[in-house]
Amino acid sequence: MSVGKNIPHDSARSHVSGESIFIDDKPFVKNEVICGFLGSPVACGKLKNINIDKALEVPGILGIYTHKDLLHNRWGAIIKEQPILIDDQISYMHEPICVFAADSYDAISEAKKLVELTIDEETPLLNLQDSIDQKLFLSEEKKIENGDVEKAFKEADYTLEGIFENNGQEHFYLESHASSAYPLENGQIEIHSSSQHPSETQHVVAEALGLSFHQVVCVVKRMGGGFGGKESQAAPFAAMAAICAKKLKRAARIVIDKDDDMKVTGKRHPFKNFWKVAFNKEGKILGYEIRLFSNGGAYTDLSGSILERAMLHSDGSYYIPNVKIIGRVCKTNVHSHTAFRGFGGPQGNATIESVIEEIAQFLNLDSLDIRKRNIYQGKDLETPYGQIIENNTLPEILKKIEVTSDYQERRKEIDSFNKSSKTHIKGMALGSTKFGIAFTARFLNQANALVNLHLDGSIQVSTGATEMGQGVNTKIQQVAAHAFGLPVSEVQVMPTSTEKNHNTSPTAASSGSDLNGMATLIACNKIKERLRAVFEVHSLGELKANEEIEIDLSIEREYIVFEDATVTNTTTNESIPLKELITIAYLNRISMAGYAFYKTPGIGFDKTTGVGHAFNYYTNGMAVSEVLIDKFTGETKILRTDILMDLGRSINPGIDMGQVTGGFIQGMGWVTAENLVYSKDGDFLSHSPTTYKIPSIHDIPRVFNIDLIENNTNDVCVHKSKAVGEPPLLLGSAVWNAIKNALRYAKPEQASKLRLPATCEEIVMLLDE
Amino acid sequence: MRDYVVVYINGERHKISGEKAFMSLSDYLRYEKSLTGTKVVCSEGDCGACTVIIGNVHRLVGNEFSYVPVNSCISFMHILDGSHIVTIEGLKDSNDQLNEVQESMARNHGAQCGFCTPGFVCALNTGIENHLKANNEITEKRIKNCLTGNLCRCTGYQPIIDAGLDVDLKSFVHLTDKFKSSDIIADLQSETSKEVLIKSSTREIYLPVKLSDAIKSHEEKSHTFISGASDLGVLHNKRGMKPNLLMGLHNVEELYQIQKRESDVFIGARVNLHQIEEQLKDEFREFVHIIHIFASPQIKNRATLVGNVANASPIGDSIPFLMVMNAKVILIGPKGERSVDINNFYKGYKDLDLKPSEFIKGISIPYYKENEQVKLYKVSNRKDMDISLVTFAAKYQVKNDVISEMQIAVGGVGPVVLRVDKTEKELIGKPFETSAFEKAGNILKSEVTPIDDVRGSAAYRKVLSKNLLMKFCAEQSLSTNAGRA
Fold it and tell me: Which pTM does this prediction carry?
């Protein structure tokens, strides 16, 4: 029984010994060249001319390529509008202009200084509000509406309104973007990429080089972290390496350094959300109206879908009978913002969480009471987009966590601490996540898997899932091992490759294990069905050496089970070692490969009406965080965090716990110290860990309790599990809510102004006003 | 005279000369030796992915290497002369099996994507080895402290902490046992007793053995001095700074000493921050607390106090303390030694009272006088491993409920660390009370001249300056009250 077991990550042993191979760890092949790019020195303007003559003379420079060298220069996950290399309009600072191929990094640094650019500089638009005012949008207006908002606002006891602003977030995957390209015969090319989306990388490379898709193979062994940052934006870097490989007929490698990676790639979207809420004396929300504006940066990228998910998570975990959600993506002259764990969900969710705190402050109640009144419960299960929540575990989680976190007792302690302390303030709050699982673009909810059962009883599985540390390969390994009753050591999940699995979706939306795990299970079952039939024929003694075997697959033979490397007919108690059965099947010319396709049934969200069954199910969880703030410096310590999650029946509890801790801490970083800073010219200044501060080991909660509830109801997912990647990130809001709560104790009139992230500066300046 | 340096890597001898001596250790490992387990992420010593383990002949404990973690991306080969370097590839046991730290990391899900993992394993392995040698219990706090210099974006750290606490300590094999080092040490001691001059096509590095040779050479050539390279390494990687003439005092044995003298403590130019943290706990407790959050273990094992002083940054974390202590910078040159009060050492932004033929031999810090107290603060956007926004030091005496002495230095609010005379004067003769500090705080706000930068706005730094003064007042009052109670 492999499913449900806490086994180590399938790469754990090679990770801890330094033997895992990432792109730049691959040995250089003969004549392999190094690639780099030159980014734009301005954030906006027209590129009139590129003179590379002097740069070409630098010793070690083997080639310099511009947009003229690309056969197709537009890419984009939704709209193909973004140039791989600038051909006319410069849209953000450091946007790639040309690509160098060289025999050393020093040569590239030298050559960069010698490229002469003629640019007609234009004034960049850098501020989200300016873009709103000038109506510079990257999307049409989207709307989700339910009930009668106007009536609710007229009839409510109270109304409040405000603005919620959040900044973006850098992914800070440890391995920056990297690709290597190997030219093959007949113009074919093989790409190895640190990409969450090998299929898109394959397509973008093929188009850039003027090749058909069947001439390009993209392979992804693993990534050193992805978090969404390598969903769309890995592709152009692969194309840069590919163009060098094609031109020089030599292997080519591009490895972006951390500073350039942070400057050129997009982040989590900043949002500015204008909200109004209507509620009664008890704090029950009657109406909610929110206009979301996201900062998409220079190009559309995935911004439309991200905005949509923000809108779909604007209800948070709370039932709102009358609601109007309107959203728009704004254009600015910064890097094109992109997918990041949560994909808009955190921004929509953090807004309603903030509104809950506002209502509590207005009514002078504990925000926990407001949450209790508004949480999806009883018959109040209809979301703003008309989906009815099934198997709702939110009330159970809320009830339990109030007890396990010792909320009420600690509230009293905090009240008394804040009355007496002259130097510090404490705050505490709950944050919730109800994360919808499925791509909202229905067509992406598909996957395929290839399972090869070898003669020695070992298995290779290939799927479109990419491994970025989240453990999808381990879960797939467990699903396959479980299916055949084998130890996981008998299953190897192979590098993701577009020649084995094509038309794949990105490993994103937390759905990697859901989709690919299910496809793997179906593929395994296909082989098992054949083996069961063979076993039955074999048991009857009907196998003859010179006769073609005939197996009837129309019969279900669930009574034949695979356990402990043995196949057993539970009706006759006859059994055979799996290996032996495989040999019999092979000699009788039975296929032991399984290829399967899976699509999530029953989902469909109508983007035009804003109504539909957007999600397959929800992953729920809550966190209670307590913070201690130094009044003088704004420094914040997380004293304690309790997390309670519903992850269905976990395939691998150890891996899932790692996702919960990692996701929460990443969310905590977003709401506290991680701050994107730009210059007045649009230069991104916080482009390395010296200036961009992700949480360190000392920043995690002093007391950190994580637990899961039991839930066996999730029939719609592989082995009744639930997706885990993104949902816990939204729990970072508990920390932000707690800081807001602390400010309410110290300066109630300032608490409403708190922006996200709540940096030391943000806190000190609010307290100083 | 040698034209090479000698290091051992995972027990194997490497003689390095010419261009290769100017490579960073991480490049040397990855490109010259195909030891790609060591990863490079930030190239500025801020993420710890490139962490390797180093023991150096000048820092032996007993007759053995004292292994410490360092950032290989900002360590140059030439200044590693005399080192034994252990990389992630050197940690498996002799049967090619994972060691106990690696096993625990694998078992406890301490690795997700794996990119930061080799660095974590090296730092954790060293931390555990050193705590076991010191007979310390392996606690959660100690695990965290030895991993302050490593960033992980996947795990949220808890699984790594769990792994640290779950290491099978009974089976743990010390590196000093794994690598039999008496021959290595003898070899390196013999080599490092000879001076080094390595020339590449455009650059040279000189590693003298005697201080007198250093003085002579510097008078002739006016070298750029390199110490721990925790700043030069970053400038090299990020801005292509490659000084032509380098000198390192790494083989000058006498400069590794902390001398506790009658009226002061002398800290030699090769004394690193880790040594201060270990050896001056009793003398300068508050300063040692600041060093705890000064930088990561990896940096503190490389960076020297003299390097921090010579760097002359307005946010140098040691400088405010040294200023209020009236520490002396001991300069040495062809005309002998000269001592300069650090308060007079900085003439402007990165402008020092230092003649071209002179260099810094060490720093001397006088002991506290009776009744003198010191309060130090460092504020940064993240508590650990971050560059300061504002640093603050106050040394003071209270006699008969009145402030009789007050020296305040504030960093990060001007081109150099500032002594704020007007604020000091305002407080002298006043009772230690909020109202006096409130008034002085407003003066302080007008006395500082911060600028906007990526870490924080000028307005914020002004508010912080005053707030630190008020925090100092509040905490002092609290401790006094507590004392009375």
Answer: 0.98
